[in-house]
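Example with several molecule types.
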Amino acid sequence: MRASATPMWRTISGFWHVYSRVRKGVLGLALVLFFFAAAGFASYLSPFDPTKIDASRTWLPPNSLNWLGTDWFGHDLLSQMVYGTRVSLLVGVFATLISAVVGTMIGLFGGYYGKRFGEFLERVIDFFLVIPYLPLIIVLVAVVEAMEIPIPVLWVVIFVIGITGWSGTARVIRSQVLTVRERQFIDRARTAGAGDMRILTRHILPNVFPLVFANAVLTVAGAVLSEVTLDFLGLGDPTTVSWGMILHLALSNNAVYRGAWWWVVPPGVAIILLVMGFTLIGYSIEEISNPRLRERKA
Amino acid sequence: MTALLQVNGLKTFYQADGDYVKAVDDVSFHVDVGESLGLAGESGCGKTTVALSLMRLLPPNASILGGEILYDGQDVVKMSDRRLRRTRWKKVSIVFQGAMNALNPVKRIVEQIAEPILLHEKIAKEEATRRAERLVELVGIDKSRARDYPHEFSGGMRQRVMIAMALACEPRLVILDEPTTALDVMTKTQIQQLVKDIQKELALSTILITHDLSVIAETCEKVAIMYAGKLVEYADVVTMFENPLHPYTSGLLKAFPNIYGSRELPVSIPGSPPDLLHPPAGCRFAPRCPLAGPECEDDPPGKTYDSRYVACWKR
Amino acid sequence: MFCICTCHLVQKFHLHCTCILWRSHEDVLDKRHVTLRARTVYLAKKAGYAFLTVLVVIIFNFLLFRVMPGDPARLLLPRGRAIEKSVILSMREFYGLDKPIGTQLVIYIVQTLQLNFGYSFYYKAPVASVIAASLPNTLVLVGISEAISILLGFYTGAIAGWKRGKPFDLISTSFGLVFWSMPTFWIGIVLIMTFSVWLGIFPVTGVRTIELIHASFLQQIADMGMHLVLPVITLTLVSYAEYMLIMRNSLIDVMTEDFVLTARAKGLTEDQVLKAHVIPNALLPSITTIALALSFIVGGALQTEIIFSYPGIGMLTWQALQFRDYALLQGLFFIAAVLVVIANFAADIIYTYVDPRVKLQ
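Resulting structure tokens for the full complex:
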């Protein structure tokens, strides 16, 4: 038996065997894959160029030509929705990469090194958890934009969401590391002469990895929501086609009072489905790796 | 005289993957008034399931599918929920391992001990509290600590609290599930002594469940050995230890190092227990048994000699 | 306190003990004093950390300015307009911009702690008074919404966790999941479209109808109530989902503990087990998790106020952003952070009273 307890599924197929039996996990995966497909095949799926303007076909409810209707400038909303998937997924995934890496590292170090350094990191994590999220993002984006750095706004958004979203992951990883650290095989490794980094990478990390993964997926959900909110508030790139932007334009053009529900409802539904998809996947992975959360088959 | 507790053909199964895990398969035994029975076996043999079945405390995916549990003549298995709740703690109580969360962390221990008293009897709160405090003293804890919280006690003391709590409604039978497993050797001895003293003074019947035969040797009069959901041997303690009949029992005893004996490695039983989802058709110990023969492909009948019982073709 | 007892049983349930006690009865009283002292020390430490957090926020605000290009004084004034030299000079004096950076920081910290956040060029008033005018509206909105969310969320979450796997749980959790995945502003938009525009039931924006300013007090309250309904629903829906899921998970964790089995073994009904044992223990971690969720609720309130043009500090943030009124923006960020810190501290205090396990050292 291996000295360090690794999860029971060590192969992708082993993992899939367990995962495929969790209903909500499969549903989540289906949703997410659907959106990835839409993003990937956007050029084939969308009937029109999303930026194409047609002055004669403005403010149209869903019809045979425009399945989701048109907006104030004549843009076909279905095409915009399809292309908008790309931005949401791009920002969601890349921002999460930053958050997950930073959060996991801080969580690992914070949990492993006790006393001074670990406690200091704990304070840092707590500090970031207390800072109000949306105001922080708003202020950061506003300031970065004012700094007039020649980076595309999209990457600014990714960066800001990334460096503000790590605290949740860090906290979770840290408490997990604290538990794992006390286990016997760590002591054994240390007496065998393993150094800190080796213990961290070879023994602790594999044990907390399921949690890292589950958390990362949930972070993507949060990142997508943040991105949409930023776009909606006008802090995103006004030239990109994204769901948040669609809603931003809808509101700026009084779509609500003009009763243009087709402009307002579909982006929201898409957001809900995508976020739900990632959330379901995240919860399922969590459930699989934490036996207590597993549902007992009645 | 009729036994205080009579278990006949108990079958408790767990549901898993659309099939059943036969955790307790046709187990019968009895406990007389004032008798202490030890129920032993390795992990997973079904002894805790037996304990939970006795009070119908099984998790939702387990159910008693057959047999009867006669307590004072009444069948626990067929009891209505209302009557069951009245039986619990008042006639039979249970002591779990005093691990961290066997006691409610946010309630003072005197409240937790008084709780069943107030539930089952119509007495005033002060009286119940007084009785609870007396119980606290009974198990060797100073009365002034009665208003403390569980986390303020050590493991051994928490076990004492659990014992005090189990005695709250003056039951006639107390089940103890691995009461000393998590404790250090010195505390273990103290608790064992406490259980013995209380049992003698209060004329309690006890069922002590453990995998540690030495604890049974020190505290029990009778012992029942379980293997893979089946009862394989039953006898009084001295006879069992001096002359074990079932090959599994002898294997267990041989696995204990003897401090006075010769310096040999203890012999462990080769192999591992069967999967209870699909247990072997015949005797469940046969695959590991040194005495196994062709007749062992059928389930061995239990034979009773005097007050011994053994389920083996070869005995 | 130390006690060695030699005991033997005299009669049934009577234990005769000779005990040697190191200390006497006074110890029990002492213990309570020790607890009180320890709690004060503990809370003082937590207060210290809270203050430190606020300080770091102030420093963060200070640094933000220095990062942006251009003259900081100029940045605090509207762009693209010619400003008189004297105005710029008074700005520089206010922030002490000719002094070394260390002194600037100290000045800034002192000023912020005195609630002097500078001057809002858009509102042509001190930032502090602008914020003070809008803050009560936000507090009313958030207060009502959170109260409903917590009560409803905890109640539903507890039942959902207890009846785990059953229809109630599956439906509640699905609902919760859907609402949690909705952007707050979108809920607001949909509600407006349905109830205000289409059905015309509720007023759309603002906090009260101006014309009613001379109406009776009751009418005014009723009017404010009508204005609050949709914003409160919006904010409640998202928070509710989160609290429900938190409580549900907490309850499921507690359900599997041994003491719950013991409670059942004692003969308590399922209902009694839930109320006396499970819920008290499930509430504890929920308190800390709520405190953490608070930093996100600020964001929700922000979005809600923007959608409904509700004149609170969220709406103010939106305007400050639009007009790049950085002084106002910084002041708002500071206030928002302070509110969350205070709420967290309150949760800490509550927690020391309800959880006996808190190590007060």
